[in-house]
Structures are given as C-alpha cells and as structure tokens.
Design goal:
Layout: H1 2-18, E1 22-29, E2 37-44, E3 50-57, E4 65-67, E5 73-78, E6 87-94, E7 99-107, E8 113-118, E9 124-129, E10 134-139, E11 151-154, E12 170-175, E13 181-186, E14 191-196, E15 211-214, E16 221-226, E17 232-237, E18 242-249, E19 252-260, E20 271-276, E21 282-287, E22 293-298, E23 306-312, E24 317-322, E25 328-333, E26 338-344, E27 351-359, E28 363-368
Antiparallel strand pairs: 1-2, 1-28, 2-3, 4-5, 5-6, 6-7, 8-9, 9-10, 10-11, 12-13, 13-14, 14-15, 16-17, 17-18, 18-19, 20-21, 21-22, 22-23, 24-25, 25-26, 26-27
Length: 369
C-alpha cells in the first residue's frame, strides 16, 4: 500500500514538473489606441496553451522590441512619423514585482523606425529608420536611460522599383556575432552596408570605412541573419520573395546562392522574417501577400539551400520565433490579429499546425523574454 502511495506521489510530482515549463515572449504590435502596446505572453511547452501575462500600454506602434542580455532593460521603437522622426523608448524591468517602468523616449530623427539593436557592450542602441533611410546611435546607461543620439548616418540613392525603392529604406541592423561590424539592410538601394564600429571611439560607427555590397536590382533586402559561426549571412529579399546566401570571409560578403520562396515571381513584395534553428540545419522564412505561408529550408551545412516545405499560416505572417527546446514555432500574423503555434520535428525540421493560438491586435514581432 505504501509503495502504491509513494508511486502515485512520484507520478504526481513528475506530471507537475512536466506541465510547468513556461516560455515567455515579448510581442511588438501596431496599435490603434493608448490601451494597446507591448504584450508579454507565456507559452506552456507541454499543453501549448498561450496566455497574456502583462501589457505595457501607452506606446504607439512598438513594432520592434528587444531587451539587454540581463532582461532588465527593454527598448522598443515607436514606428511613427513627425518632423523629428519616430521614437525609441526604454523601460526598466523588475523581475521581483514583474513590473515595467518607462524611463524615457527620444525622437529618432527619421520616420518609421522599424529595427533596433544593442551594441555588443550594451552601451549604445542603434536604430534604423525605414522611411528616413538613416541610422541613429543612442547612448544608454546601465539603468536603461537613453541619451540624445551621438551619431546620425543618412544614406542616399535609390533603385529600380519606382514605387518601393524611390529612396533609401533601412530595414535591418545586425551586429556580426564575432567581428566588429554592423550590417545594415537597405531595401531602397538594394544594398547591404558593412560598417566597422569602435566601442572606445567618440564616433561609434566608423562610417568612413564602411563597405557597401550591392544585391540584385529590385530585390529589396529586408532582414539579415548570420549563422553562429558568422561565416554565412542569410538575407530576405522582400520585393522578389527570395533568400540570398552570402559567405563572409576576409571582411567581404561573397554571394553564393539565391533561392525562390514562392513559385510565382513578384515585384510587389511580401517576404518578411527569417530564423535559423539552433543546430543550423534549417532556415525558416515567412511570406505575406497572396501566399501567407512559412517556408522551411534545409541548409545542407554550407551547401545549397533546399526548400523542403511550405505551410499555410494566418494572414500577413510577420515575425516568428522558435522556442528554446526547438519543438515549436510561434508566428505573429498581423492581419489575422493572432499568434499561432506550429509543432516542429527537431530532426526533420518539418512543421505541423496546432489549434493553439491567441488573439492580439496586429502582432508583428516576437522576442524571447
């Protein structure tokens, strides 16, 4: 009898532990009123249930949200426009009280900021302004307070798509995982900028030594993603629904391959985000427009990319994220007002839909919190 009771208790404890795995994500959105903003959601990795744990209201169009490594500072862009540009806003986070406190908000001197990143030493925040076609560098202290920008870089030029490439459009800023370079995707000029940086210099970005790599005319580079080794760069081409693959050697980008994400060519633009599995074996990309799908590609470890699956999503899938255990993908579907969940086979990389979802107005970005 005692053995049975002990067995039942052990089973209960094991079951309790197995149902307590929670993953937390920040959700960037486009807002319609002051009561909307940045959502904090939890995802149960066993039951696949999603719930909203917190909401940071009073911020307009926080479309891109990040934290420092310690998860004590949150920084978001406000994708808006004015005479002095959009905004970048910072918050402190207290894990004990589970509360966010707004610190300050500064204008970015460029309209519609849509990308932001911490410098490797977390002393600067770099903002890319889409409509402004420029970069702004903001010092940030250890508490999360932003200072007025110390550096401003304006790009000039255009490309062949008269409607979408009439001027520069900065869409992604990514630091190299090992070397001292900031990479910038300019959709408007069909260019990837490689900008050296010096954390000890008064001018953090050494723009005079920047190297510009041109991509295919009319492709529109949107998002950039390096593998962990830093020797391969993946690029979504928004305007042509393609992925570009580049080798990074001797401080140079060398084009290796371009692969189509959809069967029907386009010049209107709909390819969005891309993510790499932790093992580097599988690359994922969302496509909006008429397709509304998530494309799965096998990297074949430094050989040609290979599309192995295209699976339907909600309307206008934007950003998405893999859970830490790599067994699920959460997708922000902007025009469906939902975050949906896919199961992922960690060996094959293939996806299958689940019934798990949550309603959030205009979700567009997910960040592991």
């Amino acid at each position: 009898m005692k053995k049975n009771i002990l067995g039942l208790m052990l089973s209960f404890l094991i079951a309790s532990c197995s149902t307590s795995k929670q993953a937390t994500f920040l959700v960037g959105t486009y807002t319609a009123n002051a009561s909307q903003g940045i959502n904090v959601i939890q995802f149960d990795t066993n039951s696949k249930a999603i719930s909203i744990q917190n909401l940071i209201p009073g911020i307009e169009n926080p479309s891109f949200v990040i934290t420092n490594k310690g998860k004590t500072i949150l920084v978001a862009v406000e994708e808006t426009a004015s005479e002095t540009g959009g905004k970048v806003t910072s918050y402190s986070y207290d894990s004990t009280s589970n509360k966010f406190k707004k610190l300050n908000s500064l204008f970015t001197k460029g309209n519609h900021p849509c990308t932001v990143t911490f410098s490797p030493d977390e002393k600067y925040v770099i903002v890319g302004n889409y409509s402004g076609g420029n970069l702004a560098v903001f010092p940030i202290d250890q508490q999360g307070n932003l200072s007025e920008n110390t550096q401003f870089i304006q790009y000039e030029g255009k490309s062949v798509n008269a409607e979408r490439q009439e001027k520069p459009h900065v869409h992604s800023v990514v630091f190299h995982p090992k070397d001292s370079f900031l990479f910038v995707a300019d959709l408007g000029r069909d260019a990837i900028e490689m900008v050296p940086f010096d954390a000890n210099s008064k001018t953090f970005l050494q723009i005079e030594n920047a190297i510009s790599t041109k991509v295919s005319s009319g492709s529109g580079p949107r998002h950039l993603l390096f593998n962990k080794a830093g020797n391969t760069l993946y690029v979504t081409y928004e305007l042509t629904n393609e992925i570009g693959v580049f080798k990074f050697e001797d401080n140079q980008l060398q084009h290796q391959q371009t692969i189509a994400l959809t069967k029907t060519p386009t010049k209107s633009g709909s390819a969005a985000e891309l993510r790499l599995s932790d093992d580097g074996n599988y690359l994922y990309a969302t496509v909006r427009g008429n397709d509304n799908q998530l494309v799965v590609m096998k990297t074949n470890q430094d050989k040609d990319l290979e599309v192995i699956q295209s699976i339907a999503t909600g309307k206008a899938p934007r950003n998405f994220i893999l859970t830490n255990d790599q067994k699920n993908i959460l997708i922000a579907n902007q025009n469906s007002d939902k975050i949906t969940v896919f199961d992922r086979d960690t060996k094959s990389g293939l996806l299958s839909p689940t019934s798990s979802e949550i309603s959030i107005p205009k979700p567009v970005y997910l960040f592991n919190f």
